[in-house]
Amino acid sequence: MFTRDRGQKKAIEEAEKLTDVEIIASSVDKNFSYIPEIPDVPKDSAYLHITTNNTIEGTAIFDVPQTKEIPLVADMSSNILSSVYKVSDFGLIYAGAQKNIGPAGLTIVIVRDDLIGQVEKLPAMLDYAVQAKNDSLYNTPPTFAIYVAKLVLEWIKTQGGVAAVEKQNRAKAGLLYEYLDRSTVFSSPVERFCRSLTNIPFQTGDAALDRLFLEEAEGKGFVNLKGHRLVGGMRASLYNAFPIEGVEALMAFMDEFALKYKGGEVHV
Amino acid sequence: MFTRDRGQKKAIEEAEKLTDVEIIASSVDKNFSYIPEIPDVPKDSAYLHITTNNTIEGTAIFDVPQTKEIPLVADMSSNILSSVYKVSDFGLIYAGAQKNIGPAGLTIVIVRDDLIGQVEKLPAMLDYAVQAKNDSLYNTPPTFAIYVAKLVLEWIKTQGGVAAVEKQNRAKAGLLYEYLDRSTVFSSPVERFCRSLTNIPFQTGDAALDRLFLEEAEGKGFVNLKGHRLVGGMRASLYNAFPIEGVEALMAFMDEFALKYKGGEVHV
């Protein structure tokens, strides 16, 4: 069971190697620019899989579906520790560390005990039963990445915990969304009720002007603003470590750009 | 097809999930203290698996078996880049980076093109066909570990390449083996013709004296000298980065210890 967006393509492919997959909700009709409503999950399902934040599309799920007996499985790679979720809502949470936790090469899994060991003959590396039995030390673990993760977790505590970090993220994202919503030059392609706090795509509506923006932005030191090739346009990624000053600087540059090429913003 | 020693136990378990495994050579009769002779490999074998260096036992294979049509697969985790092997002797070489290459969390695989893609429905993470097709970038790779590996590879070049590093390793290991062979207090449990250059187990033959040695050694700053619990005694690991001065210091301490508790070495 999946809600489909591009971020879930790989999860679907892997699951299909082991079992039947049914896509019960999709936003393919509008280029994945919103989170579809999730219907009742068929009762014989092993789990419902969601991705809480979609990096490419800039959509996010804040109110997770209440699936009752069906375990909810979430790929939280791109917004773990950036907003508050209730861990007990999930059967399994997995997340690559590389966005908000530490260096690439570490994956964190939080799994309910009763869900461990349901697949036979998995390679040991991917078998949570083996990992749990060996305290995640079956093979040599990625020690440096784990050490950095520890430092980041301590940093999050000094910020006041995930709730405080979410507040900062809402402030950063809110500033940019507000700008986009009143801009006459730039806009957000994502429906309001499911906008990511982390990945914010935006566009001018003119591909040539988008390219010019990216070029001039890079000249001013704003890097990695290019949207994913499947979506186009621009994308600002505001992970936990990104400061609000960065958002303010970006908006000032957007103002400058709008003035230069479109005669300025007409704020409404 | 495997030659069995403890280091290969996991490789056997994983292979058994996919195919039949036959153990064609083993040194279990003498507690894995030597490398058994490898008989002709049955003609219908998919591959012969060896471990070129056994960390726990301190044994190593320097002359690799010539298996002709049967691909030779080697776990080289603990001596890759520490002595010269001819890559063309192997169908597949794999090695965890954490001994001689960089931080834990990176695995290097060298595989012959024609051996890729022979297993159906592998998880993408473990499917060399997927990795090869995506230039090892199917998922976010462990970037920091790769960067450090680059620095280590450059360092090996400045040393004069693997041949020069092997020469250093032979000097370091030779010094310690020579000491052990003429010592009346300490000895090596490993047969001479298959001694590792990297992991050198040694013992006094008296478990209580071994414990005392480890305790006093640690007090002097010699750490990680404890032998694996399956073997007991002591073990000196002389990876590429370990300096010859460290070996000399260890031998001086062994002399001191021998004098204190056994009235000194009787060199023969």
TrEMBL record, chains A, B:
Enzyme superclass (EC):
transferase
> What is an example of a Pfam family matching this protein?
Aminotran_5
Q: Could you list this entry's UniProt keywords, alphabetically sorted.
A: Amino-acid biosynthesis, Aminotransferase, Cytoplasm, Pyridoxal phosphate, Serine biosynthesis, Transferase
PTM annotation (N6-(pyridoxal phosphate)lysine): residues:
99
- Outline the extent of the Aminotransferase class V domain: 14-250
- Where the protein is mainly located, per its record? cytoplasm
Q: Which GO terms describe its molecular function?
A: O-phospho-L-serine:2-oxoglutarate aminotransferase activity
Biological or metabolic pathway of the protein: Amino-acid biosynthesis; L-serine biosynthesis; L-serine from 3-phospho-D-glycerate: step 2/3
Cofactor (UniProt): pyridoxal 5'-phosphate
**How, per the record, is the cofactor bound?**
Binds 1 pyridoxal phosphate per subunit.
Q: Where in the cell is it found?
A: Cytoplasm
Q: NCBIfam families annotated for this entry?
A: PRK05355.1 (NF003764)
Give a short account of what the protein does: Catalyzes the reversible conversion of 3-phosphohydroxypyruvate to phosphoserine and of 3-hydroxy-2-oxo-4-phosphonooxybutanoate to phosphohydroxythreonine.
Family, according to the entry, reads as follows: Belongs to the class-V pyridoxal-phosphate-dependent aminotransferase family. SerC subfamily.
List the protein's name.
Phosphoserine aminotransferase
What gene is behind this protein? serC
